[in-house]
Amino acid sequence: MTHQTPDLSAALNREQANEELFALLRLPSVSADPTRTADMAATAEFLRAKLAGLGFTARIDPTAGHPVVYAERLNAPGKPTVLIYGHYDVQPEAPLEEWVTPPFEPAIRDGRIYARGSTDDKGQAYAHVKGVELLLSQGELPVNVKFLLEGEEEIGSPNLEPYLRDHAGELKADVIVISDGSRFAPDVPTITYGVRGLSYVEIHVQGANRDLHSGSYGGAAPNPINALAEIITRLKDDQGRVTIPGFYDGIDDLTPEERQMWADLPHSDDEFAASIGVPALPGEAGYTTLERLWGRPTLDVNGIWGGYQGEGSKTVIAAKAGAKVSMRLVPGQDPERITQLITDYVPTLAPAGTTATVHPHHGGRPFKFDLNSPYNLAANRALHRVYGRDAVFARTGGSIPIVAAFNDLLHAPVLFVDLGLNEDAPHSPNESFAVSDYHNGILTSAYLLQELGAPNTAE
């Protein structure tokens, strides 16, 4: 039964909530860009000051990279402790020419807030800050609340795991709440119970010891760009399956119950294809689109380089070529093992006259959570209060590498309550966040804390 508390919608100052988020979005906190270090520090201070102003004990903790913002308000003795995780760093804005409005000058068009980080993850994380503020406007918080806001999620969180290890006692919580993904569809509340893992690598192909004149050497010298194209093509077969030996070993199969649950969701392949402007949805044979998105591993080329790419022509055979490759992983796959498998396999695919090497970047473990945990049930009650309907249960195709560390080091269950949508275009030009989703996210956060503080929630 829903914990009976007043409707908070009327108490939400939507205009102020928008203004504060805009101020946060104007800060170009690109963790991958070393020239933005001062902007990263300013963003951390913005969040620290806001939480301190709400009566939290708040501080900025340095790491070997960008800092962590930590805050706590522990004024609910005997009640659960909720740790809210988010990240304040954002993806690089390139390609800049594809943005309709500047990426760090927020603009509302057709009911959407356009800015880099609007949905990933500043908008979603700040909705929790405003949700706490909304509850405090009505009295004390119904639970103990801790915030952990990091600045390196978009570069693989290299320094967060050591931070968790060093602060494990202070970060102790009954449940960890994360909003850093997408709901199934507009007006469809969603609880995410699984995330895919990640192995991210670069493939480098070397040919001659220098760029060569394509007339003088073409037809005799090896071409690394052609070789790279051949290697990439051979990484998948004509059924959409990855060819790396051992890649699928040990994978947890989808259960019949999961496949039926996803088949019952209001999904249309035609509408999905139209939403991204493509005529077809290629993928692994034998699986539906949702199954391929949520429950099957992938291999995708994310970037490719080699040769002359300036204006006009330059007739050369490049000496080098390369590609960035990501593999999304599912339960049963270990990212370190998968990285080693592709590292061993790619050199065997190099055509004559070339050498191919693999250079690992970052990764993360896949994770799956209990559908029927009391925390999921509390989240469902909170979402019902906002949307007037029960949530659907879905997995996400994305990866949040630090989730495994939360499980290993903090020993607390993770609760995903995503507030955005795939159509928000995270990581892409013209990233956005629907104003209504932001406001509903604030209400969802407030109601979730109320439900988590209700009697018997964690029994």
From TrEMBL:
<dbReference type="InterPro" id="IPR002933">
    <property type="entry name" value="Peptidase_M20"/>
</dbReference>
<dbReference type="Pfam" id="PF01546">
    <property type="entry name" value="Peptidase_M20"/>
</dbReference>
<keyword id="KW-0479">Metal-binding</keyword>
<feature type="domain" description="Peptidase M20 dimerisation">
    <location>
        <begin position="194"/>
        <end position="352"/>
    </location>
</feature>
<protein>
    <submittedName>
        <fullName>Dipeptidase</fullName>
    </submittedName>
</protein>
<dbReference type="InterPro" id="IPR011650">
    <property type="entry name" value="Peptidase_M20_dimer"/>
</dbReference>
<dbReference type="InterPro" id="IPR051458">
    <property type="entry name" value="Cyt/Met_Dipeptidase"/>
</dbReference>
<keyword id="KW-0645">Protease</keyword>
<dbReference type="Pfam" id="PF07687">
    <property type="entry name" value="M20_dimer"/>
</dbReference>
<keyword id="KW-0378">Hydrolase</keyword>
